[in-house]
Amino acid sequence: MRGTQIRPARQDDDDGIRRFLAGLSLHTQTLRFFTGVGAPAASLVSALIAVDERRDALVATLDGEIIGHAMSYRGGAADVEIAVVVTDEWQGRGLGPKLIDTLLFRASVRGAQTVGMDVLGENRRVLRMIRRIWPDAQMKVASGAVEVTAMIRQAQVFAEQRSGASPLTV
Fold this sequence. Notes:
Order of helices and strands: EHHHEEEHEHEEH
Structural class: alpha+beta
Helix content: 25-40%
CATH class: Alpha Beta
CATH topology: Aminopeptidase
Number of helices: 6
Largest sheet: 7 strands, mixed
Strand content: 25-35%
Number of strands: 7
């Protein structure tokens, strides 16, 4: 992950987010959005960079180009609901877990203790990652998706074990 940077999304990221979404394969788009995106609508781009008291958004960049996106929303079934997507070329290199670590650290600072996410049942890679990070996660299948609820603290412990020092502890 040399040369990558994770930072908060900004309003001026709209063109970068458009290029990022357009560069995702249809398969990756479907796993993240449960449908293909095609040409990303302005409303989707705005939603992905919106940050306020209920929403947080991060981007991972390499040489100024967005290669990953993570967002959280307070107000769902868990304290915070999250969604993450990484370009096809960067999948399997640890960028997704790093985005999750950073996003959950930021959520825990704001008082969140539980995390929720919806994952397509066919997304075996992410479901395996969830089982590694949150072995005690509650999973419920509904309409082809798996609704996951877990404790943020478990992710913090997993991050510490994985890297020797938690990015979730300042």
